[in-house]
């Protein structure tokens, strides 16, 4: 698989089989992803990979919270601005419509939407999950470095025939994640990432992208 194919075939998969991702594949991907760029080579990412019993335990604990109706943990960073301006507001709205329409869920069916969202805590059935932390003392440039690292991980997974789903949703269950992982207090959970082989029986609609002239300006001589 070449780089272009990896980029265009990468998407947030929300339905995985229980086929295990070999340990050597995960090690190969994460070893290569360490070459992702970062300012002054700080490499500000801290990744934890869960499989088997530890991941099952995390899913169990998260499921218990969902069943009990426990409130979410307070986020330690702002996921979106309180007021999302155009064109970002429209893009987010279009994504939500496409996502739930593919599941046959009406916009006004809040309970069904909540049930669909709760699949996050099952990692959409994935047999592996990565949780990415960043040091609390680092700044916005280092957060962008973490984003480049995560994208590198996802593209390398595609090269291995594996899919993924990045999930900032785990930030609201960060305390449950910490119960299983016991990360140092100095680290903040940025996101989780479900990893596995796609379940082709789960329907989806591929979300679109803005046309090039909306996001790119060529300044030519």
TrEMBL record:
Residues 8-197 form the Nitroreductase domain. Gene3D superfamilies: NADH Oxidase. Keywords: Flavoprotein, FMN, Oxidoreductase. Pfam families: Nitroreductase. InterPro entries: Nitroreductase, Nitroreductase-like, Nitroreductase/BluB. This is Nitroreductase. It comes from Streptomyces siamensis.
């Amino acid at each position: 698989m070449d780089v272009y194919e990896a980029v265009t075939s990468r998407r947030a998969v929300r339905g995985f089989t229980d086929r295990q991702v070999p340990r050597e594949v995960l090690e190969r991907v994460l070893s290569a992803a360490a070459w992702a760029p970062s300012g002054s080579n700080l490499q500000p990412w801290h990744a934890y990979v869960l499989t088997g019993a530890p991941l099952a335990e995390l899913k169990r604990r998260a499921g218990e919270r969902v069943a009990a109706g426990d409130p979410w943990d307070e986020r330690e960073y702002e996921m979106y601005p309180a007021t999302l301006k155009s064109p970002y507001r429209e893009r987010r709205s279009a994504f939500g419509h496409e996502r739930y329409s593919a599941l046959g869920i009406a916009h006004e069916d809040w309970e069904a939407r909540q049930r669909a969202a709760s699949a996050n805590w099952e990692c959409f059935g994935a047999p592996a999950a990565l949780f990415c932390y960043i040091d609390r003392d680092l700044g916005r440039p280092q957060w962008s470095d973490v984003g480049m690292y995560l994208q590198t991980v996802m593209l390398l997974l595609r090269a291995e025939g594996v899919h993924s789903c990045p999930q900032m949703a785990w930030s609201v269950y960060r305390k449950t994640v910490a119960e299983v992982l016991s990360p140092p207090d100095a680290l903040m959970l940025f996101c989780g990432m479900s990893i596995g082989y796609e379940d082709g029986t789960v329907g989806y609609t591929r979300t679109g992208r803005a046309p090039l002239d909306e996001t790119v300006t060529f300044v030519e001589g």
